Amino acid sequence: MYDYDLLVIGSGPGGQKAAIAAAKLGKRVAIAERRDMMGGVCVNTGTIPSKTLREAVLYLTGFAQREMYGASYRVKSEITIADLLARTQHVVGREVEIIRNQLLRNHVDILGGTAHFEDPHTVTVSGAERGDHSTVTAEYVVIATGTRPARPPEVEFDDDEYHVVDSDAVLHLHRVPTSMVVVGAGVIGIEYASMFAALGTKVTVVEKRPNMLDFCDPEVVESLKFHLRDQGVSFRFGEEVARVENTAKGTITSLASGKKIPADMVMYSAGRQGVTDELALDKANLTADKRGRIAVDQHYRTEVEHIYAVGDVIGFPALAATSMDQGRLAAYHAFGEPARELHGLQPIGIYTVPEISYCGRTEAELTETATPYEVGISRYRELARGAIVGDSYGMLKLLVSTEDRTLLGVHVFGTNATDLVHIGQAIMGCGGTVDYLVDTVLNYPTLSEAYKVAALDVTNKIRALEAYR
Ligand SMILES: Cc1cc2nc3c(=O)[nH]c(=O)nc-3n(C[C@H](O)[C@H](O)[C@H](O)COP(=O)(O)OP(=O)(O)OC[C@H]3O[C@@H](n4cnc5c(N)ncnc54)[C@H](O)[C@@H]3O)c2cc1C
User: Fold this and answer.
1) CA-to-CA distance for 374 and 460, rounded, in angstroms?
2) Helices 13-24, 320-334: crossing angle, 10 deg rounding
3) 123 and 138 share a domain?
4) Taking the CB of residue 241, how many other CB atoms lie within 10 A of it?
5) Residue at 50 is within a domain
6) To the nearest 10°, the Cα dihedral for 54, 59, 60, 66?
């Protein structure tokens, strides 16, 4: 007899939902988590603080209102780091409480500390204090230990002065930097670059690839780059960082091409590493790859049958949204509860300022697979709601099959993009055509009206095509 039916290691979105799903099935469940990290990276250092910080930046800078009230409009003229972090701390504290309460309400035991395997069914959880540890056995184990920022060994991070930081330390800054170098134009790097640019920081982005966010629609990425440049962001694409000097006054980033960039602060966003080093995986007959990731099958089962792994520790797509479902599905599979696989159609949301979101295929993918399509575009500046909210740059783009009029992709740039995308996702998920949007009445004035305008645009183009046949 085991102490628990399920032991979950890590309380991020994946672990949390695995624990709750198993508890709802009437199983005896425990979750191991470090005492100061309830809710995982998601709640403490990742999704929630970064998105709350973004909201605080947008509000305090009055950024979204400047089209209306002029470029000098501010809610607060001198924005301090305390102003920004107050909101973040409030939201994080609230989320931690909600998660802890949900776990306790569902009778999930919380084991505070760092877990490691003793054998494939036995795990010891050690707290920070000497003697503060417990060893428990479980029939099934879900590993949901997530990732941490990768720190290149040649870079000297200083966690005291916060001159050279990663995306965790950026949440503990003492001041809003005047200038900043962001190394790596991945999603996290570019989200922070755009937030600091909105705050008035002079940002330089260094990226060794020739472009950024190349999985997104190129037109949307061009719009984002235009906006960021307009806010004073400089891009150094195709450039590598050779050295970062940390001086008493700030930093000097030397590029391999010989350029030198002086800045108050450097933020490294150079990928993430799976947190598997403290798990003693060998004792469970498991291994991780060199990026700390654990391999799983389609049911999130590792090579050891009763041990599952979910969330960022298994790699792509490494999103809070997908991690939650992976956790639920792993628990269902372990206990033989019937469940359907996740729908293949998943949205991507990038919370830059302005935000980007898409679902389905891109023009490049459709062209590569020789899929005939037509494009319908709606610009926010032509929507009444666009004028009301002061967004003149936003746009929504529909990609529609010219063969059967099904929706193949939706790409949104601008206010509420990450919410709006779900309308297109639902239509695509149900195999719907563009005619649904043409024949549907939407609330007015809304940004959702962009769907109607883009649908009419694309159907007019398809009609023109047919008229010439
Ligand atoms: C800056 C940033 C912004 C992001 N923004 C978004 C976004 O907008 N949307 C989105 O969907 N995703 C976003 N993500 C990604 C999202 O945060 C992750 O996909 C999600 O948190 C992964 O969940 P997880 O279940 O793998 O666990 P994580 O949230 O990674 O948490 C893992 C937990 O495991 C614990 N743990 C590790 N080892 C042990 C051990 N040995 N014993 C006990 N506990 C252990 C850790 O303490 C940690 O709390 C962002 C990430 C970052 C860093």
Assistant:
1) 10
2) 30
3) yes
4) 22
5) yes
6) 110
**In this structure, is residue 341 part of a structural domain?**
no
**CA 19 to CA 32: how far, in whole Å?**
10
- Rounded alpha-carbon distances, angstroms, from residue 388 to 54, 183, 396: 21, 36, 17
pLDDT of res. 65: 73
Domain identity same for 287 and 325: yes
Does the pTM exceed 0.90? yes
Same domain for 133 and 251:
no
Question: What's the domain count of the chain?
Answer: 3
Kindly report the protein residue whose alpha carbon is nearest to atom 7 of ligand 1.
47
- In terms of DSSP bridges, do strands 272-274 and 147-149 run parallel, antiparallel, or are they unpaired? antiparallel
Q: Are residues 222 and 88 in the same domain?
A: no
- Pocket-testing residue among 7, 38, 54, 145, ligand 1, by greatest number of atoms within 8 A of Cβ: 145
258 is in which domain, residue-wise?
164-270
| pLDDT confidence bin for 399, thresholds 50/70/90 | very high
pLDDT tens for residues 343-395?
999 999 999 999 999 999 999 999 999 999 999 999 999 999 999 999 999 99
Q: What is the pLDDT of residues 115-136, one digit of tens each?
A: 999 999 999 999 877 778 899 9
Answer yes or no: do 301 and 380 share one domain. no
Centre of ligand 1 to C-alpha 367, Å, is 35
